[in-house]
Please model this.
Amino acid sequence: MATIALLETVDDLMLLLTDCADAWDMPDRSGDPVDILDHDRQCAELLRRGYPDDEQLQVAGLVHDIGHKLVPGDVAGHGRHAADAVRALLGPRVARLVELHVTAKRYLAAADPAHAAALSAASQRTLVAQGGPMTPAEAMAFEADPEFAAALALRRADDAGKIPGLDVAPIESWRSVIVRVATDHG
Ligand SMILES: [Fe+2]
Model:
């Protein structure tokens, strides 16, 4: 089992996110058509527009796929790796939302056939390694989770934020938001 370096400061996180330029969810480039930095910024931007008052959700979107950078190739564990890395710095809710982006994918695969059919080819392939579509009992339990709506919002932004060449705000524009989330959670 790989050991994940915990992110202790906002600078640590900003450096890691910057390092996600030209880093890919699948090391052999068979996955998403944008690198992790572009993908995470697109996802966060959609959440910033749709949920302007929920900065924890926005920042969860910004960091949700850093697990691919931390442990390249561990598709099934990438949500947990990212959550573990950010929990101390960004707080338990952000960590949980990050981890739930894989859970929400399994939910939507079962509950929303149109969404499932529209998943990128890479996302459809990795769904199997991530546990496949939820059973009805798992889906009912997830619907009762207090973070159900936020987790689904993150997942929909995740699936939409894969547009090559899209111009989005630079990573530095997120520093003050990250600082607020890091300061306020505890
Ligand atoms: Fe993603």
